[in-house]
Specification:
This protein is mostly helical. It is built from 5 helices and 2 strands. Strand 1 and strand 2 form a beta hairpin. The radius of gyration is 18 Å and the shape is elongated. The protein has a two-stranded antiparallel ribbon with strand order 1-2. Helix 1 packs across helix 3 and helix 2 crosses helix 3.
Length: about 130
């Protein structure tokens, strides 16, 4: 993982999002132990409190759960929670921005849908 210190996003949010992406991709599976705050701090050369804050965000959202004395683990519903969160926050925000820009450029709904379909085809071609 590479942290972007120039980003407007705090480091702890970047850590939480990175772990979410690892869970969504299947790199970290349900009931699997995630890196501790100290391991993350060492890996990323950051303060352990910053790493803990990123982990605690995910614990507060029931994406991770704590086993006393053992660490944090991926919850059974983690993928479902992350997917719903990203659909309702990130994706809706991006779509709103896209539609707003299309309006400014007087792009019709049909043209916009065609562009999205073309982009999906292009992505499938890259796979």
């Amino acid at each position: 993982m590479i942290l972007n210190s120039d980003s407007m996003k705090p480091i702890y949010v970047q850590i939480a999002e990175w772990l979410e992406t690892e869970i969504l991709s299947g790199s970290i599976k349900k009931d699997e132990k995630v890196h501790s705050q100290y391991q993350l701090a060492e890996m990323l050369n950051i303060n352990p409190a910053t790493a803990a804050k990123g982990l605690n965000i995910l614990a507060d959202e029931n994406i991770l759960y704590k086993k006393r004395g053992l660490g944090m683990f991926v919850s059974e519903d983690a993928k479902k929670i992350i997917s719903a969160k990203r659909r309702n926050q990130t994706l809706k925000s991006l779509v709103l921005e896209l539609v707003r820009e299309a309006e400014h450029l007087q792009v019709t709904e049909e043209e916009l849908v065609a562009m999205i379909k073309e982009a999906k085809r292009d992505l499938k071609g890259d796979s």
